[in-house]
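User
New here, help please:
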Amino acid sequence: MSVVTMLQPASRASTSTNSSFEPVTRQNTFSSHDGARSLRQSKRVSMTALYASMSAKDKDLEISDDLARAQRTLRDLKAKISSQSKKNFVLEKDVRYLDSRIALLIQNRMALEEQNEVASHLDDAVDLQEGSFPNDEKTQRYGNLFFMLQSEPKHIAHLCRLVTMAEIDSLLQTVMFTIFGNQYESREEHLLLTMFQSVLTHQFETTPEYSSLLRQNTPVSRMMTTYTRRGPGQSFLKEVLAEKINSLTELNDVDLEINPLKVYEAMVKQIEEDTGVLPDDLPRSVTAEFAAENVQVQAIITPRLKMLTDIAEGFLSAIIDCLEDTPYGIRWICKQIRNLSRRKYPDAQDQAICTLIGGFFFLRFINPAIVTPKSYMLIERVPEDKPKRTLTYIAKMLQNLANKPSYAKEPYMAKLQPFIQRNKDRCNKFMLDLCEVQDFYESLEMDNYVALSKRDLELNISLNEVYATHALLEKHSTELAKDPSSHLGVLLQELGQAPPQVPRKENRTVTLPLYSRWETSFDDFTHSLDITQEEIFFMEAKSTFVQIIRSIPQATAVIRRPLRLDRVAEAAGTLKNDAIMVRKGIRCMELLTQLSELGVIDRADDYAVLRDEVEQELAHLGSLKEKCLEETAKLDDVYKTIREHNAYLLSQLETYKNYLHNVRSQSEGTRRGKTEKVKELGPYKFSHAQLEKDGVIASSNVPENRRGNIFFMFRSPLAGTFVISLHYKGRARGLLELDLKLDDLLEMQKDGQEELDLEYVQFDVSKVLTLLNKRFARKK
């Protein structure tokens, strides 16, 4: 296979051979305003992308102006977010597994063998050590395989349709955070999006009912949801929703329940508490219909409907106002849903198409963050019951806006219909506007070529990720490589049987050099894109002039506007003590001559065509610096949040580790018939101010003027047992003492009980666990 063939966007055709459904291609997916772009402009943009990419990798000329420094800072920050996102994904997967296992331990329902299995999960290092494959031949073959999986996403798209829900998590980890793990790098992002396009095309072809499209929970829908949780999606959710959700969760006492049955039950309970008796016309057990007809219930619900509507309007406006900030990839997926809908259902109304777009944008992206904001790192604590219920209502209202609402299961939601009617057109316009983004196929082809030409493509991946992916490909090889002589078939045959997973302690991160055996020349590549030699010279000249001007001190006379390109080239070409700039300057002189001889530019008008494009590019770069700084500030906040979530997950794992150690120690002691003497740890002293600063004290009833005299003592007489005492300076005995078991704290956390009441102060359960882990970690 040639590079050109290999670099084409993943086939939009279905794997089905008898389908008449026309696949999506670059030619038929332009948005409504793409058509005005001329072919020459299109090629200019592509070649600019090519030379911009190549110069970005060119270490010869290190530009160090303000923009370059801002870009480097931003690039480093994006790399950190991508790396940390993967670590969090792996940790979350482990915590989910351990949550269920520890619950059994707490209930004393886990055999010793299972305890050992859980221990193997906990004893593994979180950060893998670096390693390598046993031999170079394996490294090369796997490098070839993963290059194909990355550059031809149709294979992963096909695999996603074949795997089970049980297999999808490990595949998601490898696909989203390793193969396409550079979340802010255009080539990998665009390759991942072509995979989604292939997946969506197949779904539209094989789903017979319009109403069933994108609705079921499948490996594909799980993958789309995970995509929205990458760095760009997380940044958008934080910017748009965090402030509104935080404001709402502070209203702990505001009850906006509108289910008549629940409102009736709460009302009856309150009347009974206040008066001691219930009137005869208010029985305890009633039907939903009886509750809905009660005049008092209606009077309670009416103002709540207005409050809910006002809150939902605020959320909707915040989302719509941030249209331009919506991540490109999410908008592009919305565009594919629109285009595929119109192609398969030419008579479909915009309303029906918006229902499908909303099924992705609201159902998979926005609403999960509204309903579970803590897991999306938008707030620090799980909301109380009342604001939690309000958030659920807001999510339902937004979903009903995007869908054709049915009130069969929840007839009381029909009272919110005025909100739907008032905002339906506004919401539909927003969803169609989401789709108005340009395609990326030409720049992806350029990115792929640059990556190949520089030969520096690498993939950092763990041994178990490699082996698990190999095993899945092998398991489904009859479907994925029906032709054994296909490139994928050949590679799988050469690799042989997939090795088993190594024990997690022996898992290592390896660096795979990615390359393809099936390459072609740059001439063939440019010919396939219909790019002329004049275009190549023009864009090389433009790119090199921009590099030179950015490297020359800004006060230098030669770079004043309007630019004299011949003088700029001459100044660079005669510079002393800078061989790289001299080489660039001489090359620019050659390019000016060649382009003049080809009739592309004219010396008589001071090379106006090239000069204007160079000046426009420099003007664009000037505004780019501010955008870089602005984006860095936003992403700094996202990175901080991701790091905090990572610390919480690590703390949770450490808690489980300590608890399991205690349980196993006790089991071994019982089996041996003796109890070893355990050394008491502590006591450790903490002031009220210190625990408040660390977030351990969630709230305090101690008067402000006395808090300076309050301190706490923590000690651990036995593994898994803790004593917390509260003291007042000058008094010999403590004011109170509390005995705690690690089991109790874990059970409180599992049940969603966030506060531990010490009468005078309320402790945050999660922060107490973190403190105990840090101070009382016993030797394992």
Notes: The domain at 230-434 is CATH 1.10.506.10 (GTPase Activation - p120GAP; domain 1).
